[in-house]
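Sequence in, structure out. Go.
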Amino acid sequence: MSHPVGARLVLLSGWGIDKRIWQTLDSYWPSSIEHHAVDWPGYGEHPTLAENATIDQLASAMASHLPADAVWVGWSLGGLLAGALLDKLPAPRRLILLGIGDRFCTDGGVSETELLRFRRAFNRNPTAAWQHFLRWQVQGEPCVRNAHRQLQTLLDDHPNADHRTLSHGLDWLAHTDNTQRFENAPCPIIRVVGKHDPFVGPSTRDRAMLIANAGHCPMLSQPAQLALMLAEQASLTAKELA
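Output:
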């Protein structure tokens, strides 16, 4: 398949995981696809936001990293936050939601009770809770052990973000709801979900493009298939602009 020159993707990670997660796709991108992974504030070298920062403050911090002439790809919490920023920043050509729907807690996915239990565990021991989260999110992959080993290889033994950033991220997971925002979205919203994603309920899965033999982390278990799907979306954008 040929891809038009000019297709560009901005890749946004989820809770507790920085942009290194996208390295697994490096060998699979078509040569014509420009891709750039971006850290959220508080991850990597990106400065942490102030305590109790608002979406407006997040938008200010991310404005230079989220160009309007690109396709934004938001994985998990990254998709929720990218969706919330549609009200605050010039809209992208497309927004691809990977492993997330309009909100995080849904029937048949992660319940509000489960998230509350996890937040309590995080408050007791942030690093142990983060390590549990890594194991939790790979449960839908075809080989859980391999997926978890990949995560451990990509990441350090501790999250690449401070306690405040992670705690604030859990607040956003609990309270961000893009349902109304997506009904009147300023750009196409594309949903992509691993067929066996344990975090996603049927209402999201039924509306999504499915990745077979994958869970919440298709960049680990199905990198070639995921890269192709994202490249095709970027190519559609490039064709529309031609």
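Check: The beta strands are 8-12, 34-38, 71-75, 94-98, 189-194, 209-211. The chain is about 40% helix and 10% strand.
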